Please model this.
Amino acid sequence: MDSSASSPGPRRRWSWGSALVGAATTAAAAAVVVCRPRDPSFELISISLSTFHYRPPASLDLGLTLTVHATNPNVVPVRYGASTVSILYAGAHLGTARLDAGEQPATSCRLLHLPARLDGVELAHHARDILADAARRHMELDAAVEIAGEAAVFRLWARRFSVRINSHITVDPVFLEVVEQDNRSQMQLYLT
Model:
């Protein structure tokens, strides 16, 4: 009879070092799952007329304020740079809105008020279509913006990102009410 076949293998000793390494590995894996970056969301809540100036013979100055509900679903705060939102009508660049640089706390929502300016010349080029939309109280607009920033944890770890947001918005041009919208975002992370 072979005595080596029936004897148990070498006995492992308990090690605090191994336990700490195992716990740290488990915590890091859980943090990766919980902290994986998610796309922020932006929803246009309302549009209000802020300025309207007509200067004969054909100069029109039209300013709007866009109220946007912004959500940061991430467990870390984000800082972002200034951006310009392009507003399109029938594929033509109709105007812009300005998003100032800022910061949004982790897992939070806030209202942003974006000043917008519409191009009077482009409005004149599309006057017939815009008047027809106003008559049927149904106007379709597109908006596009790219927002760059970084997510940071206690200034020790930071991850740069860029979010591209494309929106298709249906508004009532008479009462400036948002009727429907479809927002799509795509996030890109950068290694630092």
